[in-house]
Design a protein that fits this description.
single chain; 459 residues; alpha/beta; Rossmann fold; 7-stranded mixed beta sheet; 5-stranded mixed beta sheet; 16 helices; 12 strands; globular; binds nicotinamide-adenine-dinucleotide
Length: 459
């Protein structure tokens, strides 16, 4: 069965093939052939590398672990995408996520292609020494495919700066004398990481939402009042209103997005609920986000789970069941946990009118269609959560230049880039009947198609 992403790519290309103003030099049979090439090029990866890492454990057992590196497309630049350590990692999912990276980078004009990696483990089952060995083996097994100008991994679920530091060190050992700082991004600051990388995705997630509901409407108020578009009506109904926000997932992305909302001067915001793998915390008056972050930092990343823990931390909230976050009666729901959280089984329970995808693919295809038909505005992953890869690009540049930017410079460059994307996408979205996801895909596919055509690849 065709994946959700492959089917949106195909639909976008079908729409572009019908539009005679797009690549107008391509006509009749030649046009048909070129679009067939585009479908096959963009819906399949260039390379799928699979390897079984052979790892001796501390208890003397030796195990083999499936690991992947998928290189989807590099027409825009070196392959780029995270390495995930999770027990659910598999080939199809890695291909899907690599394709998303190609589209995300094209949408935001980050000069990288799309890649993704994964190791099929639960990192919690391994000691730091074993994880270090897994990281080294990953680099050894894929060493000929990786490199500063070829394929640049970054952290993803289950990996972080520690793993990137280890991997970069192994890359340096394998390739003596080669430049190595740009071989991995998401490294620690001490090892050439960028200031602001940790916060970049959450900040970008909140920015895409805030810009839509505030800045963009403010600048285009008269136009908004005139247009007849269901998504514009939804967005306009929240302009300058008190907004209640719920955030699923209080990890890196969710906690930073919550803090941005908490401190935002542009909107009258209240973060009334946040959740993690254990609980939902709810307070209709708004949650004390800085205290929750302080608590999570001291308690292995988890939120308080009992009245006792809440009162010790001086936080006022009710404790609800984990999945209640999705059906709360709020205006905005930021999804910053996992894939496939809103699906056929719970889509009818969603009450928020604006959904923001901090996580990759948190809404299934069926639920996406159902909600878009109801006029729910969905800010898709490809648009909302690109902050990480944008600052990864800045890290890669800083590694090449061996000059480092301060945090303010990084955030300015991040917001400038995201602003330039949303300024192109939002007018198009509110001006036509298609959901925002489709608009973003069409935009990315147009860019990729034009470059592929101009490089003579559509034979
Ligand atoms: P993280 O591991 O720091 O946080 C994940 C959070 O989700 C944790 O609070 C965890 O307790 C919670 N969680 C896990 N299962 C849950 C469940 N069933 N219900 C509710 N909460 C649950 O991860 P992160 O870096 O914040 O990433 C979150 C998502 O965003 C992932 O899907 C990731 O792929 C995506 N993403 C992250 C980045 C980045 O830069 N970190 C960039 C792009 C996309």
């Amino acid at each position: 069965m065709e994946s959700k992403r492959a089917s949106i790519i195909r639909e976008s290309l079908d729409a572009l093939a019908e539009d005679a103003t797009f690549l107008p030099d391509l006509k009749d049979k030649e046009r048909e052939k070129a679009f067939k090439s585009l479908v096959s090029l963009l819906s399949t990866p260039n390379h799928v590398h699979k390897s079984f890492l052979r790892v001796p454990l501390e208890d003397q057992q030796v195990i083999r672990i499936p690991a992947y590196r998928v290189q989807h497309n590099d027409i825009m630049g070196p392959y780029k995408g995270g390495i995930r350590f999770h027990e659910s990692v598999n080939e199809d999912e890695t291909i899907n996520l690599a394709a998303l990276m190609t589209l995300k980078n094209a949408l935001h004009e980050v000069p990288f292609g799309g890649g993704k990696g994964g190791v099929e483990i639960d990192p919690k089952d391994f000691s730091p020494k074993e994880l270090n060995l897994i990281c080294k083996k990953y680099v050894q097994n894929f060493s000929s495919t990786l490199g500063t100008e070829k394929d640049i991994p970054a952290p993803d679920m289950g990996t972080g700066e520690r793993e990137m530091d280890w991997m970069m060190a192994e890359y340096k050992t394998i390739h003596p004398g080669k430049t190595y700082r740009g071989s991995f991004t998401g490294k620690s600051i001490m090892n050439g990481g960028s200031l602001g990388r940790r916060e970049a995705t959450g900040k970008g997630v909140y920015f895409t939402f805030r810009y839509m509901i505030h800045d963009f409407i403010k600048e285009n108020k008269q136009w908004f009042n005139k247009i007849d578009n269901r998504f514009a009506k939804t967005a306009l109904s929240y302009y300058d209103q008190q907004l209640e926000i719920a955030v699923q997932g209080f990890g890196n992305v969710g906690s930073v997005a919550s803090l941005e909302a908490y401190h935002c001067d542009h909107l009258r915001n209240k973060v009334v609920a946040v959740s993690d793998r254990n609980v939902v915390l709810y307070n209709s008056e708004g949650l004390d986000i800085p205290s929750l972050i302080e608590f999570k930092n001291k308690h292995e990343e988890d939120l308080p789970t009992s009245k006792h823990e809440l009162s010790e931390a001086g936080i006022k909230a009710d404790v609800l069941n984990r999945d209640d976050i999705l059906s709360l009666d709020v205006d905005v729901l930021i999804l910053a946990a996992l894939e496939d959280q809103i699906h056929e089984g719970n889509m009818a329970d969603i009450k928020a009118d604006i959904l923001v995808e901090g996580a990759n693919a948190p809404i299934t295809e069926e639920a996406d269609e159902y909600l878009a038909d109801k006029g729910v505005v969905i800010v898709p992953d490809i648009l909302a959560n690109a902050g990480g890869v944008i600052v990864s690009y800045l890290e890669w540049m800083q590694g090449r230049e061996t000059q480092f930017y301060d945090e303010d410079q990084i955030y300015k460059l991040l917001f400038d880039k995201m602003k330039s994307t949303v300024e192109t996408i939002y007018p198009q979205f509110f001006g036509d009947p298609f959901p925002l996801r489709q608009n973003c895909y069409i935009h990315s596919v147009m860019k990729l198609s034009t470059v592929l055509y101009r490089q003579g690849k559509l034979y």
